[in-house]
Design goal:
The chain is of the alpha/beta class. Helices cover 31% and strands 29% of the residues. The chain is built from 10 helices and 17 strands. It is globular and about 65 Å long.
């Protein structure tokens, strides 16, 4: 049982057995995550600690030599900055402050980012649902300078538009950047991109294949995808439809593809939804394996933390058995390196990405 004498969002001392000070943490009066540890021992966090950790996060990304103008600058616990996320889109930053403690630090973090990076603008995408669990308002605020409705970013030899005010997450799915480049190296022939969103995977496939069909359920996202294709001088057959329905229809029609990408949203938002999520993962992977031509490659992902690596592989084994195909595991991947994993916080490793090859 936790007893606290503190205000929501305070930095508090954490007292363990025998009244020993274990360290300091951000305190939440509302969330099931009451404490987010910041330091060990006697040292109390001061303003310089936040600036130092932000600077360390920036230096790490600089060392990665990322071949893109859009990447994650701060990955919360993965950078010892719990519940704070900052993504960089060229000259602009988009941040999320996802706990009561992070909310209290918003001004200090913004000031530090301006001093370190001199951005043109900083936007706070504080509209994530998780803020509701903290008893915080969901809103979008301009914190500094100016941020346009659309930002053009570069990823390798591709360029696409990001909508920081309204797009998913902070505007784009940056955690798949390295996986997109990886699948391009295997892609060939006729390709299918499922859950395509704004087309970041489809654009990579279009550079390496003869034809790409992209399936996206949102008409607005599909329109942006088409715009991104035109911007890069590639042709993508964009279809607005439900992926489950399309995969079943393609299967019945005996369609075949040489390259397939499955990058679905998180099917399991919590533990209660795991059984339904597992059934969904099996369904789309079974259909994809049946559609995959011998020698073809499937990139398949889960970003549901509650469906771990081992369980996801079991689902894929079951799907391959039911599809009556033989597959090999070519690569086992995770989120891009700018989304580092803190080993003592397994939730920071949330994305599993497998590249499979169908033998027969």
């Amino acid at each position: 049982m936790i007893r606290a004498v503190a205000e929501p969002g305070d930095v508090v001392g954490v007292i363990g057995p025998r009244a020993r000070l274990l360290g300091h943490a951000l305190y939440s009066s509302h969330s099931q995550i009451t404490l987010r540890m910041l330091t060990r021992g006697e040292s109390r966090p001061e303003a310089a600690l936040w600036r130092d950790r932000l600077s360390a996060a920036w230096r790490f990304r600089e060392g990665l030599e990322i071949q893109a103008t859009a990447y994650r600058l701060v990955h919360a616990e993965g950078d010892l900055l719990p519940s704070i996320v900052v993504d960089r889109y060229g000259e602009y930053l988009v941040a999320q402050f996802l706990s009561q403690g992070a909310e209290r630090l918003q001004g200090l973090v913004c000031e530090s980012l301006v001093d370190l990076l001199h951005p043109v603008g900083i936007l706070a995408r504080n509209d994530a649902r998780v803020r509701g669990l903290e008893g915080l308002e969901q809103r979008v605020d301009l914190l500094y300078g100016d941020v346009p409705q659309e930002i053009l970013v570069r990823e390798g030899d591709l360029e696409y538009g990001v909508r920081p005010w309204t797009g998913q997450k902070t505007g784009a799915f940056l955690d798949q950047r390295e996986n997109r480049a990886a699948v391009r190296g295997y892609a060939r022939g006729r390709a299918l991109d499922c859950f395509a969103y704004h087309g970041a995977f489809a654009l990579q496939l279009a550079r390496a294949t003869d034809r790409v069909i992209a399936i996206e359920s949102s008409p607005e996202a599909a329109e942006i995808l088409q715009s991104n294709a035109a911007r890069n001088g590639v042709v993508i057959d964009v279809r607005v439809a439900n992926v489950f329905d399309v995969l079943r229809a393609f299967d019945r029609a005996g369609e075949r593809f040489d390259t397939i990408v499955l990058d679905p949203p998180a099917f399991a938002k919590n533990r209660a939804s795991v059984p339904k999520a597992e059934a969904g993962y099996k369904e789309i992977n079974l259909r994809a394996l049946r559609l995959l031509a011998p020698g073809g490659v499937l990139l398949t992902c889960t970003c549901s933390h509650h469906v771990g690596d081992a369980r996801f592989e079991e689902i894929l084994i079951d799907a391959a058995r039911d599809a009556r195909v033989s597959v090999t595991l070519v690569e086992k991947r995770m989120q891009s390196r700018d989304h580092p994993v803190l080993l003592t916080v397994p939730e920071t490793r949330y994305l599993t990405c497998l590249i499979l090859r169908r033998l027969a």
